[in-house]
C-alpha cells in the first residue's frame, strides 16, 4: 500500500480504516469504542495533524493488546498506528 504524501491524506486513510473497524459487528464493543475515540481525535480541527495522530495512537494502543480482539482487527489497528506514526508537523 502506498501512503499519501501529505498528512491530511494519511489521516483520511487512517480514518477510513477506523470506520471499517467501527462498523464491523464481529469486533468487540470495547475495540470499536476505542476506534471511535481515535476517530474523534483525528477529526478535532483545533489541533495540529501530528497532535491529532498522537492522540489517536494513544487511544488505539490501549486496546491493541486486548486478547479478545480478532486477528484481522488487530492487524487493522496496527496498520492505522503505522500510518499515523508517519504524520509529522
UniProtKB/TrEMBL annotation:
<comment type="similarity">
    <text>Belongs to the UPF0147 family.</text>
</comment>
<dbReference type="InterPro" id="IPR005354">
    <property type="entry name" value="UPF0147"/>
</dbReference>
<dbReference type="Pfam" id="PF03685">
    <property type="entry name" value="UPF0147"/>
</dbReference>
<protein>
    <recommendedName>
        <fullName>UPF0147 protein apy_00770</fullName>
    </recommendedName>
</protein>
<dbReference type="InterPro" id="IPR023130">
    <property type="entry name" value="Ta0600-like_sf"/>
</dbReference>
